[in-house]
Specification:
By secondary structure, this protein is mainly alpha-helical. The protein has 8 helices and no strands. Helix 6 runs parallel beside helix 8.
């Protein structure tokens, strides 16, 4: 009997997106999330682990690990999705997502680069620490950010709101 074909390691981002969308907290179903996790394990467990090891052994210089993000995604649509999701999630996540209501796209500036890449887990963790989330709450925050997905610009906007509130 032949070996089951596996997906290349570069498809790890697609698996993360699938799992984020299937997660119950992102509007998916619990059974679907469990099933997708089992399929993922069966299809690419070796390749995914190899990919992660390689990523940790030789990270790109100066880049933090970021959530999966399409560089030319419609920023306004993502922002609207985040604000709309605020009504479907618990606090403190809803509070954070509502801060994006006044986050508008830019066409050229240093913010354009941030608008075109996924939020770093470091920035998301900083937001979580600002509002005193537990570790489990921060993990849930990461899943919410992945399911939208939030850009680095979104994360910076939320942080700036939190800093103004603290001042």
């Amino acid at each position: 009997m032949g070996r089951i074909p596996t997906l290349p390691p570069t498809d790890a981002g697609m698996w993360r997106r699938l799992m984020a969308r299937a997660h119950p907290d992102a509007g998916g179903a619990h059974e679907l999330f469990i099933w997708a996790g089992r399929v993922k394990e069966l299809v690419c467990s070796d390749e995914l682990q190899t990919s992660r090891r390689q990523a940790h052994e030789s990270p790109r210089k100066g880049s933090a690990e970021c959530i999966p993000f399409e560089p030319y995604a419609d920023f306004e649509v993502l922002t609207s999705r985040a604000v709309a999701m605020a009504s479907a999630v618990a606090e403190p996540y809803a509070y954070l997502l509502r801060r994006l209501a006044d986050c508008y796209p830019v066409s050229d500036s240093p913010l354009l680069d941030q608008q075109r890449r996924g939020a770093s887990y470091k920035a998301l963790a900083a937001i979580g620490h600002r509002v005193e989330m537990s570790k489990a709450e921060r993990v849930q925050w990461y899943r919410i950010a992945e399911s939208i997905p939030l850009s680095q610009r979104h994360a910076g906007h939320i942080l700036s709101h939190l800093e103004r509130r603290a001042a």
